[in-house]
Structure prediction request, 145 residues.
Amino acid sequence: MYEYKVNFVCDENKIQNIVNFLMEKMRDLLILKYYDFLDNERLEKEKKLVEKGLLMRCMKGHSLIPHTDYTNTIINILIYLPRDESLSEFGTVFNENRDGSIIDIEKIQFLPNRFLCFMSTPNSWHSVKEIDKICERNTILIEMN
Prediction:
């Protein structure tokens, strides 16, 4: 059984100010990178993109089951904020759905100064394995939708 334990912390306005600053610099680059993969419906959405940012502080017991964010998000951006390399094993796992079975394809280690960006598609399965020790897994999540 997976549990979803996340404490959202920090002033939402501060996080949104960080997101606005980053996206002002990166928005056009991201759209250009993923432009060829966007269908007409998503291209129309792109004209009205809104970025939503959250600071996530995940604790012992947190996990995310394999999922896609396809219906409500165009691009996911994760900025990892660990203090050191001791939590490297708790990074994002990319999964694949093979005939109804979800398998792990690649894990992006949870390391300082790591930035992860991917387009949400029906096949962009991802997850986080259960955090089994006392720690804080701090991440800024930016959803472009």
About this structure: The chain has one domain: 6-144. The first helix runs from residue 12 to 34. The first strand starts at residue 6 and ends at 8. The mean pLDDT is 83.
